[in-house]
Amino acid sequence: MTLRNKFFLSLLPVTVVAISLFAGCNPETGVSSAVTGNPPMKTTDAESTDRSEAGIASATSTNASAESNTEHGHKSGAHGGIMVSLGRDSYHIEAVVDSEGSIRLYTLGKDETRVSEVESQTLKGFIKADGDAESQSISFEPSPQEGDSEKMTSLFIGKLPSEFVGRKLDVTIPNIRIAGERFRLGFQSGQESHGDLPEMPDKLAASEEQDLYLTPGGRYTSADIAANGNVTATQKFKGVKSAHDMNPKEGDRICPITETKANPKFTWMIDGKPYQFCCPPCIDEFVKTAKAASDPLPEPDSFMK
Questions:
Q1: Which of 51, 70, 178, 280 has the most CB atoms at less than 10 Å from its CB?
Q2: In whole angstroms, what is the distance from residue 41 CA to residue 13 CA?
């Protein structure tokens, strides 16, 4: 058995039950989305509809799935959804799927924090449930928010048929008009049971966290504490959002706790070496293990896909 495998086994007693989905992620939305990033479509409405029904929707969904694990694709929006980029980031859509089967699409500008109203229009989309062979059409109706101009909207709402609620879906909208241009978008949505997700550690209480990070022990030294700025992970990474990627690629660094893709933003010095994690609660768990260890820890480079 390798040192890394022994290390993972040693973590089992300290791994605790997952909090809802991920820290910083909204479990209600369950969106794991992505974007096509294609330039505007220069086709007529009729051509767009014909191509969609002939299979463009499923092709877009495939592209979305392939790109669904990029960091940009996992940014949370103001409503807890996922940002979908249009026209190489010229515009953005925040897609939110709720537990009652509504899909809300908020239109945003190049700056994802700014609302961008678009022409009021009915959007024709296609949904395909995981495991199903055929897609089904869905309409997204304009639902102007307060402050939207006449004949403009910054929100579209679609209602899923009851048999699709709670299932993992490919969602494709082949044609949305914005400022005289046409774009298409696709993303994946769906609510997954907690059992399908890596277990995420619970957040420590403030007093426990202070004691954990600011007192040395085992392989966690006073030099490590100083190198990390004499602060806790919560203090150091305040305001930094976690963006979990459950499908790291070959050669990617992985979190020592969950084996999801590590984020270099969440780097912590332990035993004189920089380790990368997916979120602060995972740093908590690794530091606990380090403080209880007398033997050297696995090298940071051993945590690779």
A1: 280
A2: 54
182 lies in which domain range? 45-190
Task: For Cα atoms 103, 109, 114, give the angle at the middle one, nearest 5 degrees.
Answer: 85
User: How far apart (Å, rounded) are the C-alpha atoms in residues 224 and 218?
Assistant: 12
In a domain, 175, yes or no: yes
Please determine, for residue 49, whether its predicted confidence score (pLDDT) is greater than 60: no
Residues 94 and 177 occupy one common structural domain: yes
Residue that has been written with the tokens 């014909």 in this structure: 50
198 confidence band (pLDDT: 50, 70, 90): low
244, two tokens: 């979990």
CA–CA dist 228, 249 (Å, integer) = 28
Angle of helix 280-292 relative to helix 3-11, nearest 10 degrees?
110
The answer for residues whose C-beta is within 8 angstroms of residue 35's C-beta and 6 or more apart is 64, 67, 73, 84, 85, 86, 185, 186, 187
Counted residue by residue, the chain has a size of 305
User: Cα-flanking dihedrals φ and ψ of residue 174, to 5°?
Assistant: -70, -20
Are 230 and 184 members of one domain?
no
Could you give the C-alpha distances from 156 to 83, 116, 142, 232, in angstroms and in order? 15, 12, 4, 42
pLDDT of residue 29: 40
DSSP 300: G
Phi, psi at residue 171, to the nearest 5°? -115, 125
Distances (CA, A) of 202 to 21, 241, 284: 11, 16, 9
Q: In 3-state terms, what secondary structure has residue 170? A: strand
Measuring CA to CA, which residue among 269, 256, 278 is closest to residue 14? Answer: 256
- Could you tell me if 112 and 135 lie in one domain? yes
Q: Into how many domains does the chain fold? A: 2
Do 142 and 154 form a contact (C-beta atoms < 8 A)? no
